[in-house]
Amino acid sequence: MATYNDEGVVLRTFKLGESDRVITLLTRQHGLVRAVAKGVRRTSSRFGARLEPFSQVDVQIVERRSLGIITQAVSRQLLGQPLLGDYPRYTAAAAMAETASRLVPEEGTPAVQQYRLLTGALRALSAGTADGQRPAPMILDSYLLRALATAGYAPVLDGCAACGRPGPQPFFSPQAGGLVCAGCRPPGAAAIGPASLAYLGALLAGRWEATRTVPAAVADQASGLVAAFANWQLERSLRSLAHVER
Asked: Which of 144, 150, 188, 224 has the highest local Cβ count within 10 Å?
């Protein structure tokens, strides 16, 4: 049985038997990994607390035909700990973890960009709201757009997604893949103003300086569009998004 080492973020856990847990991780070099951590629910466990959701860890895993076995876990950063008493930030982190688990294939292939995006977003969430830190919905919306773009689902924001007509367009359609012109507008497409469009572009590009003075109404509209776009591209709704406070 082969053994490998990698760094990863715990996306979710669930109980197995009387004392074990199945841990789902997004790892840098092996993508989405599910493995068993034996005995972690016992009070005497050596690394149970290190394998809580949103923790960043160095792990050693023994490969098996079904689920691997985690034989070692060393904490890099307990990113979930600062979120436990903050419902908006915890639910935003949960939505990020669910998105990552949908976008990264279980093929043992590197997922470096997705890993960096997730760890960066979780660090921003765990920093809290002090000292001008960004609000949780803004961090989540930026993560969703950038993670989808990395996976090949970037929204079209510089022309009509249907006919290719260049330039800003007045409507946004999740089904069409982004902006659409008046002639291509499908049923249900939302009108989008220049401020909301500029804000979406800033979130997608990570231009944080352009998001500091965005009116609440603009941010709220953009959040709704991002959520609709993410749910459509992922083919079924993200369950965690229903609990996110926007």
From this structure: 144
Give 50-105 pLDDT, tens digit per residue.
899 999 999 999 998 889 999 999 999 989 989 988 999 999 999 999 999 999 98
Q: What is the pLDDT of residue 194?
A: 96
CA distance linking residue 55 with residue 76, whole number of Å: 8
Burial class (CB in 10 A: 0-12, 13-18, 19+), 89: buried
Q: What angle do CA 196, 200, 204 make, to 5 degrees?
A: 170
Sign of torsion, CA 136 137 140 146? Answer: negative
* pTM of this structure: 0.93
Query: How far is CA 54 from each of CA 39, 57, 117, 130, 195, rounded to the nearest angstrom?
Result: 20, 9, 13, 21, 33
